[in-house]
Amino acid sequence: MAKKSGGMGSVGSWAFLIGVVLAVILGLIGALSATMTWVLVVLGLIVGLLNVTEDEVGSFLMAGAVLVLVSALGQTVMQGVPMLNRVLQALLILFVPATVIVAIKHVFSLARN
Q1: Long-range own/partner contacts, residues 34-40 (CB < 8 A, 24 or more apart)
Q2: pTM of the entire structure?
Q3: I need a surface site. Which of 14, 53, 85, 108 has the fewest CB within 10 A?
Q4: CA–CA dist 53, 69 (Å, integer)
Q5: 46-71 tens-digit pLDDT
Q6: Distance (Å, rounded) from C-alpha 64 to C-alpha 100?
Q7: Are 23 and 91 in contact (CB under 8 A)?
């Protein structure tokens, strides 16, 4: 992630850290409520909008796509382990919006050039 001093970059960095920690904790303690799902979606949007620099787009999209695929497929495989299944679901809720936002920003960047 971007190393930015202060300002909006700091918000994006904190959103990323809080989102991942929150997703893991919420997954470990139980089912996600509608409110907590929205919190993770909003954090994912903030991460996608504020935390990825132009130089990091390729790496983020590759890692984000892998994380989304593994989380989605892992939920099917890990149905026998409910706690891990919930963690994967929470990570999916966080990273899908972030990855979509970064991909859309990158497409617009490519269209400008």
Answers
A1: 37/93, 40/90, 40/93, 40/94
A2: 0.83
A3: 108
A4: 23
A5: 999 988 888 889 999 999 899 889 98
A6: 9
A7: yes
